[in-house]
Specification:
Shape of chain A: globular
Number of helices of chain C: 14
Strand content of chain A: 25-35%
Strand content of chain C: 15-25%
Structural class of chain A: alpha/beta
Low-confidence stretches of chain A: none
Largest interface: B-C, 55 and 55 residues
Helix content of chain C: 40-55%
Oligomer: heterotrimer
Chains: A alpha/beta (about 240), B mainly alpha (about 300), C alpha/beta (about 450)
Structural class of chain C: alpha/beta
Mean pLDDT of chain A: 87
Strand order of the largest sheet of chain C: 7-6-8-9-10-13-14
Order of helices and strands of chain C: HHEHEHEHEHEHEHEHEHEHEHHHEEEE
Largest sheet of chain A: 6 strands, mixed
Number of strands of chain A: 10
Strand order of the largest sheet of chain A: 6-7-8-3-9-10
Shape of chain C: globular
Number of strands of chain C: 14
Distance between the termini of chain C: 65 Å
Mean pLDDT of chain C: 85
Order of helices and strands of chain A: EEEHEEHEHHHEHEHEEHH
């Protein structure tokens, strides 16, 4: 897996959300994406995933230009993402939620095969007992797990997770942790956005820090933690909040 | 008492047909977020399609032509969607909401006047499905009407099966619930839009073809059914399938019972649509979202 | 944004519903707004009185090589465009015949046919335009009653001789305007043929379903009164929007206590719909309940739309049934079929004769002077496709005590018959003429 982002720019009206962001990921890296509020983390993830059209720059996945592809096409190329506020399909059962992406990406494998795969995934996420429940009756954390389940069904090479731990019960957090580590061992790469510093520092091999649409730090967690610019960025935010 | 049952039977048989047409409109709205103002014209085209097909192939049984009429109109709907609505969903239109209203209105006028020019103003009638009256003791119904209703019920059943059991149905539901999330899990919403619009057009057309032997076809035969469809989908809750079905049945019953029991027969017939609108207003008063309307649009 | 667009949609929807139900609820080509227009009539008369003093009649156009004749009729919805179209065809044919024979007053006749759309205000506007802008010498045609009444006001205001072909409302000639002549039956006359037939056939319990327009609203009380005078008192009249799709609930209501005769007097698509739906319910025509259809029953499309249900239906036919054709009728029908590829209906024949009458009046007047033309028409004796034309009550013989006002400038013997279909897909030519009995070609009533 090889992700190359070059000079990515995205504007909303007069606001420059991303200002020439460049980064590179390969293999099965686990990258944490952090930064103060409004730094452009979600915008970056949305643009890479195809929800926003970039105003400038390039995005290459495994050598192919995905900059102008739509989200379903990006998923087809091996890049999946989850949302900060879980967006599982509330009026479908958990099982249906998992079947939808599966049959969208690779319908030829057939319903039966996918159904057994879905059961495996649900087992892994310890949610098999909820498979016939409607997503709207699940807790926020459980809905996040459903989203992760959807991702598993499509087997992407690179997973973009937006705040996977926000508002999640500690027990479920463990499940999510397991999810990430297991998949990493299987060779998947991750970009994880989180405000939960403990989790992020534990999970990531590498940290990207975004501030005002620009990358101000890129390196191992320890190094980034003591980076002047990073401290300034966060302190600056705290000073504003104070 | 048999009078009540007769009226009830008429109401339910019509209600099922109303529901079929309204379902088409709901489908289009819930997937494309567009109100199809040409829905009545698809109904009209379905009637004409069945008339012309049966005219050309006199050996065919009229019931067999219903899916054909639906298919032909669905194709027309598809072409329209690809040409005029897809650009809107690709972000190439400046003011998509106003555009959607105007373009479907435009299609409506176009189809109506095209039909007038091509087919003339004189009413036509495809042959009956089955001639005569069905006498069930307490209830007497026209054989054509009953057949149309049973066919509509079957079509509704098939549609529900499709929505709930097939992947296409799940994908459509996904897009109607959350377009972006659907895209992120691999569903091409543009393809779903086209599918939904074609299906919606086909449903309206089949309703039109089913009712053509009873009501005949003229270029403007779709005007009243289309208005009724708008009322039903708002009554039932925009985008709700159960809402459309229940709404259709409710309007059918209210109209029939209203005309049957209102004291002055002349007024009764003229107030037929009004009875439905009164129920519509009452429901919205107490449930602004409609019977099954959702909070999230 | 979502909530806003939903409520915007609901608002748009409501407006659409209201607007479209106001103008779109009667999408059929029918006379619609008539009852309202009758009230309007009264005010227009007052205004016209004032204006007559001030406006001079414009010069009729006789300069140059052509003489202009105006004609009006419904060519589009909500008017009865089926009838109007064949009226236009027949009028054009009449004009061409006159031109081939040398024209009028040494000039070629040019016909201007205006679409009155079945709406009185349109009829008024287009007639005025024909007179004021185009300078027509005379006016002919029209099908709808309410529209004819309105147009009568205009031709009176401008003093333009007019021969109406089809509007039946008594008021058309009861106005007593010197300019207005009519060859169609009045409603009273037309109804009397039907009511006399009904009484003769012996039906005692009758329900009429008629259209909620000038035509229907004027007819209804007339039938009830005439039938009561003939001793038939159990007569109910129900008024319906002619664009009604589904009459079934009202028919089921009637089926609770079925009448001996069900009369569906609705013009346009409503005629076939009502019959079809009554038939599908097993209500009529049956041995227990006879069915009386409207004038649209005469058209070939009737069979296409009602199928077997049309057998045993009887209807009033205004025109000359085939059994009673004269040489003129044969010639007209042959020419019309040759030229237009289909058989002409009663309205076509009426339009043809009315146009010829007007032109004959101009010819006999020897000038375009309206008074001369009116005088010529008052004294005319002319044989047309539907019979021998003359006008009994004129300026020489005014309406007297006991004579209905509508007899003014009215052809006294307009062809009105009752026909009954005895076979499926029967033409009006093969149908039985059943009334008046002196001219009958079959039994009074054949029951299913």
């Amino acid at each position: 897996m090889e992700l190359e982002v070059e000079h990515l720019t995205k504007r909303f009206g007069g606001i420059v959300a991303l200002n020439g962001v460049s980064l590179r990921l390969s293999g099965n890296e686990r990258v944490g994406l952090i930064g103060p509020n409004g730094s452009g983390k979600s915008t970056l993830v949305n643009t890479i995933a195809g929800i926003y059209e970039p105003d400038g720059g390039k995005i290459h996945l495994n050598g192919q230009d995905i900059g102008h592809l739509k989200p379903n096409q990006v998923l087809g190329r091996g890049l999946g993402r989850t949302f900060q506020v879980p967006r599982a399909f509330r009026r479908m059962t958990v099982m249906e939620n998992l079947m939808v992406p599966a049959l969208a990406i690779r319908p030829e494998r057939g319903r039966q095969a996918w159904e057994s795969r879905a059961r495996e995934v649900l087992d892994f996420l310890t949610m098999d007992h909820l498979r016939n429940d409607y997503a709207r009756s699940l807790s926020g954390g459980q809905q996040k797990l459903v989203e992760l389940g959807q991702l598993l069904m499509t087997d992407p090479d690179l997973l973009l997770l937006d705040e996977p731990f926000a508002g999640v019960h500690p027990q479920l957090m463990e499940t999510i942790f397991d999810f990430i580590t297991t998949l990493h061992q299987q060779g998947k790469a991750f970009i994880i956005i989180s405000h939960d510093m403990t989790s992020i520092f534990t999970l990531s091999e590498r940290l990207l820090v975004l501030n005002s649409g620009e990358i101000i730090a890129d390196g191992p967690p320890e190094a980034v933690k003591s980076d002047e610019a990073v401290i300034q960025a966060y302190l600056g935010e705290e000073a504003e909040d104070a | 008492m048999s009078y009540f049952w007769s009226l009830g039977a008429t109401g339910v048989t019509m209600g099922v047909l109303y529901a079929l047409m309204a379902l088409g409109l709901t489908l289009i709205f819930s997937i494309l977020r567009v109100i199809n103002f040409a829905h009545g014209e698809f109904y009209m085209l379905g009637g004409y399609a069945s008339y012309f097909i049966l005219n050309a192939f006199t050996g065919l049984h009229p019931l067999l032509v219903i899916p054909l009429a639906g298919l032909a109109t669905a194709l027309l709907g598809l072409v329209f969607e690809l040409a005029f609505l897809r650009p809107m969903h690709q972000g190439r239109i400046e003011r998509p909401d106003e555009y959607a209203v105007l373009i479907t209105f435009g299609l409506s006028f176009f189809l109506l006047n095209l039909a007038l020019a091509l087919f003339g103003p004189y009413p036509h009638r495809p042959p009956s499905f089955f001639e005569g009256t069905i006498d069930l003791g307490i209830v007497r119904l026209s054989a054509d009407r009953l057949t149309a209703s049973v066919m509509a019920l079957i079509l509704l059943g098939l549609l529900l099966l499709l929505i709930n059991r097939t992947w296409l149905g799940k994908a459509l539901r996904a897009v109607s619930q959350d377009k972006q999330a659907a895209a992120v899990v691999g569903i091409n919403s543009l393809v779903m839009n086209s599918a939904a619009f074609a299906m919606g057009a086909g449903l309206a057309a089949m309703a039109g073809a089913l009712l053509a032997p009873s009501f005949f076809v003229t270029p403007d035969v779709g005007a009243v059914p289309s208005i009724r469809s708008y009322v039903i989908i708002v009554l039932g809750g925009m985008g709700s399938i159960q809402g459309s079905i229940l709404g259709g049945l409710l309007i059918g019953l209210v109209e029939s019972l209203g005309v049957g029991y209102f004291p002055d027969p002349s007024r009764a017939l003229n107030y037929k649509t009004a009875f439905g609108l009164v129920i519509f207003a009452l429901v919205l008063l107490f449930r602004p979202r409609g019977l099954f309307g959702r909070k999230e649009a | 944004m979502q909530r806003k667009s939903v409520s915007t949609l609901v608002v748009i929807l409501t407006i659409v519903v209201l607007v479209t139900s106001a103008c779109g609820s009667t999408p059929e080509p029918q006379v619609v707004v008539e009852t309202v227009m009758v009230e309007k009539q009264v005010t227009t008369v007052v205004e016209v009185e004032k204006e007559v003093l001030v406006t001079a009649a414009p010069e009729p156009q006789v300069e140059g090589d052509t003489i202009l004749i105006g004609a009006v009729g419904p060519l589009s919805a909500p008017g009865a465009y089926q009838a109007g179209t064949e009226m236009r065809q027949a009028t054009e044919m009449a004009v061409d015949e006159v031109n081939e024979a040398g024209g009028l007053l040494g000039k070629q006749v040019e016909l201007l046919f205006a679409d009155s759309e079945g709406l009185p205000e349109r009829g008024t506007a287009v007639t005025e335009r024909l007179i004021v802008q185009n300078g027509v010498v005379g006016v002919t045609g029209e099908y709808h009653s309410g529209v004819g009444i309105a147009e009568g006001e205009v031709v009176h205001k401008y003093h333009v001789p007019t021969v109406f072909a089809e509007p039946w409302a008594d008021e058309v000639t009861a106005s007593g305007y010197p300019e207005v002549f009519r060859i169609a039956p009045s409603i009273e006359y037309y109804s009397s043929i039907a009511t006399n037939y009904i009484a003769a056939a012996g039906w005692k319990k009758i329900i009429f379903i008629t259209e909620d327009t000038d035509y229907g609203r004027l007819n209804g009380p007339v039938w009830q009164q005439q039938l009561a005078d003939l001793g038939v008192t159990d007569v109910e009249v129900i008024y319906a929007d002619p664009a009604t799709e589904d009459f079934t609930p009202i028919l089921q209501r009637i089926q609770q206590d079925p009448p001996e005769l069900l009369a569906g007097i609705i013009t346009g698509i409503g005629n076939a719909r009502l019959l079809r739906q009554a038939c599908d319910l097993g209500l009529a025509p049956t041995a227990e309940t006879a069915y009386y259809g409207s004038v649209d029953t005469q058209y070939p499309e009737f069979w296409e739309n009602v199928g077997d249900c049309g057998q045993y239906v009887f209807f009033t036919y205004v025109g000359l049934p085939e059994a009673l054709w004269n040489a003129q009728t044969e010639a007209f029908i042959t020419s019309f079929e040759e030229r237009y590829g289909h058989q002409p209906g009663g309205s076509a024949m009426a339009a043809y004769d009315a146009a010829h009458l007007l032109m004959e009046g101009i010819k006999q007047a020897g000038s375009a002077d309206p008074d001369a033309i009116i005088d010529a028409l008052e004294n005319i004796k002319y044989t047309g496709a539907m019979g021998d034309y003359w006008f009994e009550y004129t300026s020489k013989k005014p309406i007297s005590e006991g004579v209905p006002a509508w007899m003014w400038h009215q052809w006294p013997t307009p062809n009105t018959y009752i026909l009954q279909y005895t076979e499926v897909d029967q033409s009006t030519g093969d149908a039985n003429v059943v009334f008046p009995t002196e001219r009958a070609t079959g039994p009074l009533y054949t029951s299913p």
